[in-house]
Amino acid sequence: MTDPATGIAFAPKLDDERVIAGVGVRKKGPIKIYSVGVYISEAVKESVATISKTAADDKKAALDALRDGAKEQGPTTFLLKMNFKVGAEKMASAIAESVVPRFNGADSDVSALKDLISNGVVDGSATKGTTFQFDCTEEGLSVNVNGKEQGIVPSAGLAKAFCDVYLDDKAVSPTLKSSCLENLCADE
To answer: Helix (H, G, I), strand (E, B), or coil: what is residue 50?
Structure first.
């Protein structure tokens, strides 16, 4: 699946447990910062596939099923692929700032997430092609940068808040949610 805004491609499967649900772009003004793909379990895919993508009520039901399933029937992975150069600290801070209003846990968990992101970036900048993989599970939120595991923040609440960054009503990539509906829901 390819993000039409950036031309960045995502594999149909991450592993035997997770399949692509949709792709989208994170913009700041006219700048396309990164593309994001969300990978979900087959169980979540099947639960959303029975819902029609045409009726407004069904769209809300489908988004609710996707969001709830992503948080409760993981693992759910958000794979970010950079399209624009951003400083490591700025990238880490931007992600943390998106999580904070959705998270009721300890500030130290958010600080740990920021550290895992910024410490994983080589040479202080996330350049075009840099990847960030965030795995959301009941155990917490793990971070990989360019395929190298950085660590895990052992907080299920943080993992759920991270899912909300991309799937709630104020999602940072509305195109990701639209893509998920288009790809997962029934045509009728």
So the answer is: coil
